[in-house]
Amino acid sequence: MFESDFNSEAYLNMQLLRFTTAGSVDDGKSTLIGRLLYDSKSIFEDQLEAVERDSIRRGNEQINLALLTDGLRAEREQGITIDVAYRYFATPLRKFIIADTPGHIQYTRNMVTGASTANLAIVLIDARNGVLEQTIRHSYIAHLLQIPHLVICVNKMDLVEYSEQRYNEIQEDYKKLSDKLLIHDIRFIPISALHGDNVVNPSVHMPWYQGPTLLHLLETIDITSDRNFDDPRFPVQYVIRPISDKYHDFRGYAGRIAGGTFSAGDEVTILPGYQKSKIQTIQLFEKEIPSAEVSESVTLCLTDDIDISRGDMIVASGNLPQVGQEIELMLCWFNEKPLNPVDKYIVRHTSREAKAIIREVVSKMDINTLEEHPADLNIGMNDIGKIRIKTSQPLFFDSYFRNRITGSLVLIDEGTNETVAAGMII
Hints:
This protein is of the alpha+beta class.
């Protein structure tokens, strides 16, 4: 992608895959990403030189590829990932954004943050240790966040002598767990991130594995059907009213399409007032386009003058979302201060904000058994639970299982303005 004949327009139009890595501590997440970048030749020379110097200084026998993603000083000193590290690279077939998330239990909230927009999750399992508590935790979070594709990389196969039997044992153990998860596309790959087996290049040590390498899978996996194309949703972010000679009567509503497709001439309903109108034009910068689909940022112009402001939602007239103030959701608690039902919160949902109170803490999830415990209602940092809230004004939402954008929200502490939880509407 850095050659002289690099086509910038083609690069911009390439499909983007967002993926996250997860797994227990020392399972090799950062090394795997470093190997992906290194073997796909996506590292600048000065970056590689800096990593080589750091590897020598630390006394490593060979280049430590994990240093490519472990950016914080504390991460490099401890040899662990603490924060979410984002990395970007591209191949001739696709662009990628990687979220390298921590393995420690106390950083579960970071994994939720990194995985919230992912199309695919890579869960690493140490071939020596097999399925652990953190494997279950991260798999459940992938299920909770409705990540469509899950790739189980059985890493460090070199330390079990590339044993096919050990790989099959781990695969069977994980399949027992996956029966409880609503993830329909789960793939398995035996790898050695340290030596590059089945990461970018096929392994000569595991001829018994005939499947794709990890990079080939990332380049070719179908993600076109992952987004919701059925329910047209357009949260209004900004009202464009230039009041200039050139655009004297222009009034447009800017935002990012959260679901479905909008076309000129479509009949739409504006929430919360339920006014009806039609789309006159769709603007992309200064160009008029006939239609736009989910994830595109555009400006809609309507045939009628209606009082619309930020936080309102434009939807297809024959396909309305749920509208309500009483909402049940699953949440992951981020804050060191536990959830307190008497505290007041602000809900941020798409482009809309409203005050909220906790109506009820319904249950807390036991990550080890994947069961809900209604008797334990203490929700602390990194805990996952089910609650009911009431908002000061109605929200326009779908269930998270149907639409990850209109089905998600965050809770903000009204007193400190800290984001305390991420919620998935049931």
